[in-house]
Design a protein that fits this description.
By secondary structure, the protein is of the alpha+beta class. 54% of the residues lie in helices and 15% in strands. Helix 8 packs antiparallel against helix 9.
Amino acid sequence: MSASQAERVNQVKPLLERFTASAADVVPLVALWAHGSLALGDFQPGRSDLDLVALVAADITDAQRDQLQHMHEALIRDEELADKLHCSYMVRDQLASPGRCHVTWAMGELYDRPVSPISRRELHQGGLCLYGTEPAAVVPAITDQELNDYVRANLRDYWYPKTAKPELWLREIWVDLGLLTLARASVTLQDGRLISKREALEVLARLDAPADVVHDIYQRRYAAEQPISERWRSRRALLARTFVRDGIARIVPA
């Protein structure tokens, strides 16, 4: 772990320590890993999500699901930044099945979903080990073809249809994630690299993204967020979804 990574981990260390202990009381915890912003060196406390994967020794029972629900709700009540903590609970003997769904806490609810090839690649290449075994020692490698197929499908099947829904793009989260996802996908498909959101902002400039929208995203993530007018909100939504829609059409031709 680099010095800068260690500093960022220390900023959320109390939360991570409580989460590790609480999770170990509920499930047979083998390891706990971080990926996403914390692992890529772009973590912004209070703004970035805490993307975690817990490796567990056995299937999670219905009773344990209920306990996990209560545990996460208690963390959100008691700990600053806990509302940004997301965690997938992967069963050790199911690691070799990329499409397998795993119990996941995200956005304030517990449900089942796969750990994506992007997350698996992050774990394998640079995941932070917070407890137990290093991820690269046990997480099977994702091939470039598997990664590229997933990225293209995500753009085509998820993001492209969203560009046909103007009301979504009035919200900052769609503007931010839409443009940043497109930039990151373009780099992955070009040379196989996974880049941070900060790096993605630089890529957006090279892709001729609307400069005012890129600046808007930067302010919200790295500086002091400013109030905006409804006129700019509407204009920003149109610029963002048009750029994302046209970009996907170039990267993933119909």
